[in-house]
Amino acid sequence: xxxxxxxxxxxxxxxxxxxxxxxxxxxxxxxxxxxxxxxxxxxxxxxxxxxxxxxxxxxxxxxxxxxxxxxxxxxxxxxxxxxxxxxxxxxxxxxxxxxxxxxxxxxxxxxxxxxxxxxxxxxxxxxxxxxxxxxxxxxxxxxxxxxxxxxxxxxxxxxxxxxxxxxxxxxxxxxxxxxxxxxxxxxxxxxxxxxxxxxxxxxxxxxxxxxxxxxxxxxxxxxxxxxxxxxxxxx
Length: 235
What we know:
Structural class: mainly beta
Largest sheet: 6 strands, mixed
CATH class of the largest domain: Alpha Beta
Distance between the termini: 20 Å
CATH architecture of the largest domain: 2-Layer Sandwich
Number of strands: 13
Strand content: 35-45%
Low-confidence stretches: 1-17
Radius of gyration: 20 Å
CATH topology of the largest domain: STM4215-like
Number of helices: 2
Helix content: 10-25%
């Protein structure tokens, strides 16, 4: 289970100051991309205290910040995922929604999913979707203590998996998210339900699928690709 931090994107102490600046930069970049798809003045980044104002044609709101893990690029990095709601209202809401979601899905940095209605401040009346924004924050690591004993490293070969999530009628389940047991990061399926992810070299693969607030685990044989995961619709 991923840890989710929910807090305003302002204040909170010196240690969190650097993180807030990176998160705000990523959020501003997303807003600029959205403004490139529709009239720029229609897009407004809103806060919780703006609920009494007249809704913007396109309201963008940060919902939560999730810890994905840690990695090393130029140095140690904390990998986060910012959940952002995009809600469209007004006469042009359907047209705006179509332009926005195709613009976001046309890039490689972001993924989209169904709007999470469990966050009431982020879901005013209207239609919309949720965007997952990757955020990488550099970390300061203390100097390691000198180790006199030999370092033993166990290497494991991974593999690239491809598959599709389908419903009981054989139709692709667009919007589902798939995660292998070897990873903490879920990948979003395309509109046809297809997905790609990295996992271990094991023949038997344990995969977790999230769809419409439900989570299920599947065991699949990866000897023949692509893998087919059938979502039966039962609780």
